[in-house]
Amino acid sequence: MTDRATSDADREPVRPAADPGDAPGAAPAADAPSSAASGEGPPRLAPRPLDRPAVDATAESVFGRPAGLSGGFAGPAARAAAPPVATVAPPALAAAFGRPAGADDTLQRPPASTGSEPGAEDPFWAGSGDDPWRDPGSGVALGPPAVDPGAPAAAPTGEGARLSLREVLFGRRVHPRALALLAVLALAVGAVGGLVGRFSAEGANALTEPGVTLAAVEPALERPPGSVADIAQRVVPAVVSIEVRVGEEGGTGSGVVIDGGGFVLTNNHVVAPAAEVAGASIETVFSDGTRTQAAIVGRDPKTDLAVIRVGVTNPVVAQIGSSGSLAVGDAVIAVGSPLGLAGTVTDGIVSALDRPVRLEGGGNVNAVIDAIQTDAAINPGNSGGPLVDATGAVVGINTAISSIGGGEGGSIGLGFAIPIDDARVIAEELIRTGVVKHAELGVNARSVEDDTSAGAQVQNVQQGGAAAAAGILEGDVIVTLGERAISGADELEVAVREFEPGATVPVGIVREGRPLTVSVVLASD
């Protein structure tokens, strides 16, 4: 194998790249030892020379030392021979800080005499050891300002020119003609204001003339939303007065518009005379005085409800509420035409709910309603009008009153209305078909009670009826129907009408002292 090792003496000396600090083309230092000659190792680099940039001539003339001066301070002879090193001061600075005219000293002296005679050696520079400028204990004296006493005094400044109003207000930015126009406009506005004030004063004088008396004005009453006045304003336009004429006789009642097609809901006993006699007429009167003829759409004597229709375009329609949400004590308002007085409004509360009431008089002797009882004043003529809640929604149809004196008396605080939940179903069926079918139990009953209970005792059972098919016998006392307790014959009748024909209903009876429950499939009337 070839030996590739070589000795240090056989190697070519390695010369580093030219040092950036060396001058181009400079030869190696003469005193640098030659590693090849000495045989001591690789060559060593010489120290880099200092980089001294050239001094600007202008800066040197201003900040450089005078020629021949090497220290920080120069003696008097050197200072006298040295050329000035500063530029000439501006005139303003020279006048403020320069030496007085004729002064030959170069340093400002204290105001007091230093004891030196003219021409004597300057004590500030005498000797080399004592330098007052370097002595921290030397005293400080304040001299007079460097002002030339021979300079003339400055003349006093005179009063300057005064500014005009236009210059003060507008800074010479408004033309005089514009100012004149502005003044004319101001005068015109003032003149018009003066004339208006004069005429106003003359008009006010009439109020202070003798013989003029102003009537006292009462503050306006507040009618907040939900008040009786607010509800009346919304409901009365949807209530009509119904006038029925049969030959030479007539009667009045009320109704409420329930549909934009002109359908009016009322009581059957209000329009029944016109339906049973040929040539009779029905006329409705709206709150604004509009009169129009009406035609009977359908009647339901068992619930004492009827629907008529009027030929009025876009009538005001009442809002329909829910009687199922009522509670005893809720505020209610009755609207109608009692005793022929159209647009009458009375208010009260709900006195009772689900009160079975049998109507008396005319062809409605057997009609029974499951009524809302109220103490709102209801009188003859209110029949068919709406009973509304505190929101103005219809919750019942006023139908009957309880009075003393054979039914001819007025309201004694016991009025009855058909719940709107029942009336709505009847009205929809009458508008759709003209007739209504009701569930039928097929018994005749009377109210009975003892010391502990009450019910409806069956007097007879119709052959082929629902009760006969369920095994109910004469003498049985019905005490429940569905989930409703039965306390009398009237309540039994309204409880049956709560169901649809064909419904299967559990009926609780008492037979010879023993309670029984039978299932009855209700028939249709």
From TrEMBL:
<feature type="region of interest" description="Disordered">
    <location>
        <begin position="1"/>
        <end position="77"/>
    </location>
</feature>
<feature type="compositionally biased region" description="Low complexity">
    <location>
        <begin position="16"/>
        <end position="43"/>
    </location>
</feature>
<feature type="compositionally biased region" description="Basic and acidic residues">
    <location>
        <begin position="1"/>
        <end position="14"/>
    </location>
</feature>
<dbReference type="InterPro" id="IPR001478">
    <property type="entry name" value="PDZ"/>
</dbReference>
<protein>
    <submittedName>
        <fullName>Serine protease</fullName>
    </submittedName>
</protein>
<feature type="transmembrane region" description="Helical">
    <location>
        <begin position="178"/>
        <end position="197"/>
    </location>
</feature>
<dbReference type="InterPro" id="IPR051201">
    <property type="entry name" value="Chloro_Bact_Ser_Proteases"/>
</dbReference>
<keyword id="KW-0472">Membrane</keyword>
<dbReference type="InterPro" id="IPR001940">
    <property type="entry name" value="Peptidase_S1C"/>
</dbReference>
<dbReference type="InterPro" id="IPR043504">
    <property type="entry name" value="Peptidase_S1_PA_chymotrypsin"/>
</dbReference>
<keyword id="KW-1133">Transmembrane helix</keyword>
<comment type="similarity">
    <text>Belongs to the peptidase S1C family.</text>
</comment>
<feature type="region of interest" description="Disordered">
    <location>
        <begin position="101"/>
        <end position="145"/>
    </location>
</feature>
<dbReference type="GO" id="GO:0004252">
    <property type="term" value="F:serine-type endopeptidase activity"/>
</dbReference>
<feature type="domain" description="PDZ">
    <location>
        <begin position="430"/>
        <end position="513"/>
    </location>
</feature>
<dbReference type="InterPro" id="IPR036034">
    <property type="entry name" value="PDZ_sf"/>
</dbReference>
<dbReference type="Pfam" id="PF13180">
    <property type="entry name" value="PDZ_2"/>
</dbReference>
<dbReference type="InterPro" id="IPR009003">
    <property type="entry name" value="Peptidase_S1_PA"/>
</dbReference>
<dbReference type="GO" id="GO:0006508">
    <property type="term" value="P:proteolysis"/>
</dbReference>
<keyword id="KW-0645">Protease</keyword>
<dbReference type="Pfam" id="PF13365">
    <property type="entry name" value="Trypsin_2"/>
</dbReference>
<keyword id="KW-0812">Transmembrane</keyword>
<keyword id="KW-0378">Hydrolase</keyword>
